[in-house]
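Example record for the data management plan.
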Amino acid sequence: MSERYIRQNKTSYTIVKNSKTYAKLSSLEDAVFIRDFLVDIDWDLSKVPEIIKQDNNYLVLTVYEEKIFILAKYKKKPTQDTIDKLVKRHYRNPNNSKYGLNISNVMGTYVISKQIAGDSYVFGLYDDLRDAEFVRNFLMDHQWNVNEFEPIMYDEDGDNYKVVLVFDDYAYVLDSFETSDIDLNKTYEEFLGKVSKHKYGLADYPHLDGLKDRISELEDELNVKAHDNVWNFSGEKSEALTEIIFTLSPFQKSVYDTIDDKATLDEIKQKLIRFKSGNFEEKIQRNLDELIGNDLIVQDGKYFKKN
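Corresponding structural encoding:
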C-alpha cells in the first residue's frame, strides 16, 4: 500500500482519506502502522482500542475530536490506571500547550474560563499554576459544576490536600497541606488575612482583587474573622508592620511578602523571579539576613517564617 493516505508535512505525517484527517503523527513508521490499522477496521474510529501491540511495543491510543492520538509507548503492557491517567491528561491538554485547556495567564494571574452556550464564564483566578490545574481538572471531570467542590479536596497530581472555598461561583484554593488533618477555621482566618493585607496594600495578591471589598461578607459566611500574626485588622496596625511599611526598601518588602506561613529559599526565589538579575540569589539572601536582624522573620531549618 506504500504511503497511500499519508501526507508528509515539515515535521509530521497526517493520515487523510476523503478529505478527512484521521491522525497526525511524528514518524512515518507510526503513520504507516496507524494507516494499516484503520484500513483493517474500515476506518471506523469507534473500534479503536485503548491499547494495541506494535512489534515489541504497546501503544496507548485515544480518539479525540474524531482523530487518533498515540499517547505513549511501553515495552510492558501498562495498567488500566496508567492508561486512564494518560487519557485524562490528553483531554486536558490535547494541543500540548503551555497551560492546557481553559487556563490563560493574564499578567501573572492564572484564569480559568470556558465558553458555555456562547457565553464566557470565569471560574477562578490563581497565583499558582498547580492550583489552577487542580481546579480546571476537577471541573472538567464534573461537568463544570463548581458546587461539586468540598471544603477539603485531595489533589491526586500534587499528592496533597487543598482547602477550597466556593464564593459567587468562583472556586478559591486557600492553601495546600500534606495531610487531611486541617484546621478549617484557622485556614479561613489566614485566607481572610491575606485578602485584608491585599486590600490595605500590605501585600500584593492580584488574584484576590474580587474579594477585597467583600471581607465582611466572607467573615459572616465562614463565621471567622480575618487574622494575621502581625497585623490587627480590627484596630491599629502593629508596631512591627508599621516599621515595615515605613522603613523597608521596596525589594525588602517584596521578599517579606513572599513568606505567608513559611517558605524555603527556592520558593522565595520563584516568587521573585521577575526581579532576577546577575546577583539575584545573593540579593535575596542579604535581604533575608536583614529581615532576620530586624526580628521580622526567623529561620527554622530550611524554612523562613514571619516572627
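Summary line stored alongside the record: The longest helix spans residues 184-199.
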